[in-house]
């Protein structure tokens, strides 16, 4: 895993800004085409990691804005029999802020509503942070990630806090565009990832052992 960087805040801010600009420059058609190609590879990887168990629970973020899209991916996972855990970000029923990561079961697009920062979320009550331990595979959001297992999100640290509650050894996948694979400086609290899926390749990360290498499945 990438070692902590003494200038981490400045370096990470520059990478986030560059990533945000790059995603904003992509056309709707590019995003749509890339989402479709990436979904095929992501579904194949999930089936491989769950050993074909269609009842195995999978966690997946619900995309918003220029993020690699997950709406069709989540629908496909649910249609194939996988229970899907998705983030619950909005306030509690009494209007107070959630104290930490929370999850709910995906029940279809008609059940979704805009949550915090406009991110879709289900209307069901949250199950709490420990619900993530039920997932056999986690699909997390990212702006950049490296083959050394490093990952950079938007800066809130939500997934780093959430992944603490995943079962030991649970593989973490991030969805990226082809030009977004890049080792990034890591802070002590950052959690490593295991796989990167782009529209053209599936990359195995090696956050703990020796120099990073890639294993690609087409």
Automatic annotation (TrEMBL):
<feature type="region of interest" description="Disordered">
    <location>
        <begin position="1"/>
        <end position="34"/>
    </location>
</feature>
<dbReference type="InterPro" id="IPR024185">
    <property type="entry name" value="FTHF_cligase-like_sf"/>
</dbReference>
<dbReference type="Pfam" id="PF01812">
    <property type="entry name" value="5-FTHF_cyc-lig"/>
</dbReference>
<feature type="compositionally biased region" description="Basic and acidic residues">
    <location>
        <begin position="13"/>
        <end position="34"/>
    </location>
</feature>
<protein>
    <submittedName>
        <fullName>5-formyltetrahydrofolate cyclo-ligase</fullName>
        <ecNumber>6.3.3.2</ecNumber>
    </submittedName>
</protein>
<keyword id="KW-0547">Nucleotide-binding</keyword>
<keyword id="KW-0436">Ligase</keyword>
<dbReference type="InterPro" id="IPR037171">
    <property type="entry name" value="NagB/RpiA_transferase-like"/>
</dbReference>
<comment type="similarity">
    <text>Belongs to the 5-formyltetrahydrofolate cyclo-ligase family.</text>
</comment>
<dbReference type="InterPro" id="IPR002698">
    <property type="entry name" value="FTHF_cligase"/>
</dbReference>
<dbReference type="GO" id="GO:0030272">
    <property type="term" value="F:5-formyltetrahydrofolate cyclo-ligase activity"/>
</dbReference>
<keyword id="KW-0067">ATP-binding</keyword>
